UniProtKB/TrEMBL annotation:
Keywords per UniProt: Membrane, Transmembrane, Transmembrane helix
Organism for this UniProt entry: Pyrococcus kukulkanii
Keyword Transmembrane: yes
Lineage, uppermost ranks: Archaea, Methanobacteriati, Methanobacteriota, Thermococci, Thermococcales
Domain Major facilitator superfamily (MFS) profile: 10-427
Domain of life: Archaea
Keyword Transmembrane helix: yes
Name of the molecule in the record: SLC45 family MFS transporter
UniProt xrefs under InterPro entries: MFS (IPR011701), MFS_dom (IPR020846), MFS_trans_sf (IPR036259)
PANTHER family the record matches: MAJOR FACILITATOR SUPERFAMILY (MFS) PROFILE DOMAIN-CONTAINING PROTEIN (PTHR23528:SF1), PTHR23528
Residue spans crossing the bilayer: 12-34, 46-69, 81-100, 106-125, 146-166, 172-192, 236-254, 274-296, 303-321, 336-356, 377-399, 405-423
Length: 443
């Protein structure tokens, strides 16, 4: 494939696509649960179900849209038409979220976030697929590190800058987030050229045929790989996938409801709770590459287990602090708030040790021919967890209050740690890529 001359500057520019996407998701997860509970007085269980809409679109639409963009040919290329349609539409819907809240009309609010999630899904796969389009095989690991760094930078800007804007007006983070996401993706469209072979007028696409073939291929391969998981006499693959399922339930429950916990249980502003999550993201981003080298030196299984021990301990200590002392104010200098931020910084290190080393473990349990299929297994179990976590943790909060959130997460981190004891394969294979080359998407 003729990809033209490779330049890292192009990858940094492409990284703005991930930068914009990460800003939107960070703000969405931090503040929309608050809106659902404060304005519309929805239960935590229902709030949790609503917060799974993006994961549902990811499971149902992303494989199809990725295949559709593969087959698209236009004068702009095969990825840019989806970015041009999806990014502005998603930005408009995202900016309308606080407007819909102001009208206190649940149907209007739900319609806004459903369309916003749909338009985000519309261009997410094409943006992800853009990187290998313009990057030769031997440079893709470095390129992946760059675009994930840009994604992490977007999340940090959302959490830290979002607090300042939210304290001024709850709508401002949505307006500025939408604007930045729009500008970021326009930079991609304007300055990152697609390969010449894709910038040609194409024939009319048979959507029904593509949908049928993509569905058959995706779900057929998934079915066969799931058979491998459960039929194998050696249960390492099943164990690591269950561990992934458990720790993503723990993490996603915290991501969805921690700002609500901060407001309703600790009694501080939700923007301060979002800032705490930003500290977690900061330490994850700083330690992501070192965590890969630790996994290579210590072993992936031991590194993941150590990370799970750290995160479990951090969550339990945070629970103890939250139950025995309450912040006197929402100030970042409040001792309790500072204690949480210190714990979250260490927790981000533990999460990096887990997350960076898990995908390599899964793919190193199979042959080169099945790498894509086993990568699909990883995302299937992580997305399944993201569908389960918000409504399940929300149900516990409905029954017993926000004091259950941190113990809920700790239990699932602990279940993941126990399950890791049954993993016997998946450590370093010298013919595979280096550990730091598997840094996951921070979205």
């Amino acid at each position: 494939m003729n990809q033209g001359k490779f330049r890292y500057s192009m990858i940094f520019l492409l990284g703005f696509g991930f930068f914009g996407i990460s800003i939107i998701w960070a703000l969405y997860n931090a503040y929309v649960p608050i809106f659902l509970q404060d304005t519309f007085h929805l239960s935590k269980t229902i709030t949790g179900f609503i917060m799974t809409i993006d994961n549902l679109f990811a499971v149902l639409l992303l494989p199809f849209l990725g295949a559709l963009s593969d087959m698209t040919r236009t004068r702009l290329g095969r990825r840019k038409p989806y970015i041009l349609l999806g990014a502005p539409s998603a930005a408009i819907m995202f900016a309308l979220i606080p407007v819909a809240r102001r009208y206190e009309n649940l149907a209007l609010f739900m319609g806004t976030i459903v369309f916003m999630n749909f338009f985000m899904a519309l261009f997410r796969s094409p943006v992800i697929a853009f990187m290998p389009d313009i990057t030769p095989s031997e440079k893709r690991s470095q390129a992946n590190g760059i675009i994930n760094f840009m994604g992490g930078l977007g999340a940090l800007l959302a959490y830290f800058g979002g607090k300042i804007l939210y304290d001024m007006n709850y709508a401002y983070p949505f307006y500025f987030g939408a604007l930045i996401m729009l500008i970021a993706n326009l930079l991609v469209v304007i300055f990152v050229p697609e390969p010449e072979q894709y910038r040609v007028p194409g024939a009319k696409l048979d959507i029904k045929k593509i949908l049928r073939e993509t569905t058959k291929k995706s779900f057929g391969e998934l079915k066969e790989n799931l058979k491998d998981v459960f039929a194998s006499r050696e249960k390492s693959l099943l164990a690591i996938l269950l561990a992934i399922f458990f720790w993503f339930i723990a993490f996603n429950s915290l991501e969805t409801f921690f700002t609500s916990y901060a407001k309703y249980h600790l009694g501080i502003e939700e923007s301060t709770g979002a800032f705490m999550l930003g500290v977690f993201s900061l330490s994850f981003m700083l330690f992501a590459i070192p965590a890969g080298f630790v996994g290579a030196r210590l072993g992936r299984r031991k590194t993941i287990s150590l990370g799970l021990l750290i995160t479990t301990a951090i969550v339990l200590v945070a629970f103890y602090i939250g139950e025995t002392s309450k912040p006197a104010s929402s100030s970042l200098s409040d001792p309790v708030v500072m204690s949480f931020m210190g714990l979250f910084f260490v927790g981000g290190i533990g999460w990096a040790m887990i997350n960076v080393n898990s995908l390599p473990m899964v793919v190193d349990m199979t042959t080169e021919e099945k790498l894509g299929g086993y990568t699909g297994l990883y995302y299937f179990f992580s997305q399944a967890a993201n569908l389960v976590a918000p409504p399940l943790s929300g149900a516990f909060i409905d029954v017993a209050g926000y004091k259950t959130l941190l113990p809920f997460a700790a239990v699932f981190f602990l279940l993941a740690l126990i399950t890791m004891r049954f993993v016997r394969r998946g450590d370093i294979v010298k013919t595979k890529l280096d550990a730091h080359e598997y840094i996951p998407d921070l979205d």
